[in-house]
Design a protein that fits this description.
With 363 residues, the protein is of the alpha/beta class. It has helices at 17-27, 44-54, 69-82, 102-108, 131-148, 164-169, 182-192, 217-230, 233-263, 268-294, 302-330, 335-358, and strands spanning 4-10, 31-37, 58-62, 87-90, 113-118, 125-127, 160-163, 196-201, 203-205. Helix 9 (233-263) packs antiparallel against helix 10 and helix 11 (302-330) packs antiparallel against helix 12. The radius of gyration is 27 Å and the shape is elongated. The mean pLDDT is 87.
Length: 363
């Protein structure tokens, strides 16, 4: 048995499947090809069976229903793991992934490295797309990378090589993505698990024969990407941080009015004193709640940590004032819009600085 498995999911690929298998066989040796067919109505599965009879290195998995690209790959990878393959390649049947790049993809992959055949690194190229599709793909990559904090340039690429070690470390049963977002999730999992991610340039060529399956998948993929983001620790922390900030805004207001009501002094000077008292109380409460709930800090140097928190809060206050002045004083925006921009800027500043500096040990 060969040690490298190329997994090719198919659905209605009768124009391409035989040609791609023949092309792989002509260029590569020492690899097996697993065709995972989702009960294609056009007879792709029968062609795959004929190829398996002709070539010992071609295997076929028949699935009863079309369950999505991600589910097909998961099924193929599980099949391969049961048989002990060392490297696993995800590849389309429509020649968009160049057979000529297989050798580079395989040789660049080791037990700690996932390799991406990338369209968006230097030397990468896309052939056959109009500017709208290119802009859509490029924009989706930028947005997804930013949202999920992925360093790879081509996160939506489907041409990849995974080592066995990686597939064993992740739980394939818990992979969320059934469709095209599977490609994104696998890169995210690789990064989160500490695997190296290497991108090699490829020339991606739009399919000539057969029909694209991406129609209707974009919305599903976007939903999955947002779902993946919601499960990332940093976004859970940001939501908690925002909730804590909202709660302590009310704490601030409550103690401000309590001091005014208790002492019944209505001068501007006393109001400033009341505001200082309420700020100290709310900021202290803010620190305590974030320490215990948001970041779950176990740092024993509480005074030093709290001092950092107050320094960051002071910086946030300054940023709040500057943004409000620039937006309303110079930009002549309405006050409500200035408040939203100023608050948003201050919250982002406070969260990032507290995560990276104040509660760094907790991360």
């Amino acid at each position: 048995m060969n040690k490298i498995l190329i997994v090719i999911p198919t659905y209605n690929e009768k124009e391409n499947i035989e040609k791609i298998v023949e092309a792989i066989g002509a260029r590569m040796s020492g690899v097996d090809v697993l065709i995972v067919d989702d009960n294609s109505p056009d007879g792709t599965g029968k062609i795959a069976d004929r190829l398996a009879e002709k070539y010992k290195w071609v295997k076929v998995m028949h699935r009863k229903h079309k369950e999505g690209l991600g589910r097909a790959y998961v099924a193929g990878f599980k099949w391969g793991l049961e048989r002990g393959y060392e490297k696993y390649i995800s590849m389309d049947a429509d020649f968009s992934h160049p057979v000529a790049a297989l050798s580079s993809l395989i040789s660049s992959c080791d037990s700690n490295t996932i390799v991406i055949g990338s369209r968006y690194v230097r030397g990468g190229k896309i052939v056959g797309w109009d500017w709208r599709r290119y802009l859509n793909s490029w924009g989706a990559n930028i947005f997804t990378r930013a949202l999920l904090q992925i360093r790879a340039k081509d996160v939506t690429a489907g041409f990849k090589c995974y080592p066995k070690k990686f597939l064993q470390e992740i739980n394939l049963n818990k992979v969320q993505s059934a469709g095209y977002a599977f490609q994104v999730e696998m890169v995210m999992l690789a990064q989160d698990k500490g695997f190296q991610i290497k991108e090699i340039p490829i020339m991606f060529t739009d399919r000539i024969a057969g029909q694209s399956k991406i129609k209707g998948e974009l919305v599903k993929s976007a939903k999955t990407v947002f779902s993946l983001a919601a499960h990332k620790k940093i976004y859970r922390q940001f939501v908690k941080f925002s909730i804590v900030g909202l709660v302590n805004t009310f704490v601030d207001w409550f103690f401000f009015y309590m001091v005014i009501l208790v002492f019944k002094v209505d001068t501007q000077f006393f109001k400033q004193i009341a505001k200082a008292i309420s700020f100290i109380i709310s900021a202290s409460s803010n620190y305590g709640m974030n320490r215990i709930w948001t970041f779950r800090s176990k740092n024993k140097e509480i005074i030093r940590e709290a001092s950092k928190f107050f320094i960051v809060a002071t910086g946030g206050l300054a940023i709040n004032q500057v943004i409000f002045y620039l937006s309303t004083g110079i930009g002549e925006m309405r006050d409500i819009y200035g408040l939203v921009l100023a608050t948003t800027g201050a919250v982002i500043w406070n969260f990032i600085l507290n995560k990276k500096w104040t509660f760094k040990q907790s991360n």
